[in-house]
Design a protein that fits this description.
2 domains, 5-stranded mixed barrel, OB fold (Dihydrolipoamide Acetyltransferase, E2P), 7 strands
Length: 194
Amino acid sequence: MYLSLSGFSLGVLLVHFSLSIPLSLIVFITLFVVFAPFIKTVSFERRYSLRSISVKAVSLGFFVLVGASYALIEIDDHKAAQIAVKQTGEQSSIRGFICNIPRVTQYGQQAHLCSDRGRFQINVPIHSLDLSKGMCWQGAAHLKAPRSSYNTHVESYERFLFSERIIGFASMRTVEPSRCSNYELIASALTRWR
């Protein structure tokens, strides 16, 4: 159990830090084989041989590949949903539920709107989002790709937006409450409670 979880997590981390998977696999499996007798994953009893250590190393490698594959599939799905640079400036109608606590910025009120397409970071005029009227909102928006030269406290703002699963920015002049589905009511319950 621990071996599978460790391998899966390691695979996801390899993709997250953009490391070469084949090279990293070779290094980690080699280190595992070398240090396995000195850690608790392999007992000091004689019944454990080089064969059992090799089986554990291969199992670790398999779960690393599963974790890396999962992370790559998630990345591809997110990139497919993102607003493309050529779509910047287009007007579209978006609808969804507020999935974080709105905050006031110098540009107005900012929040994340979770739609069936993905999560948008929306900017609306101050006091437009009155959550006492409901968690679901809709309106016409000018879309913008999740690109920016603005860097906050993070190293890469685009990587930060990716980690927040934001597929694009949406500037909305007017928003209006809309009826929430049962799923949206459940999904927005934590934000509503907060």
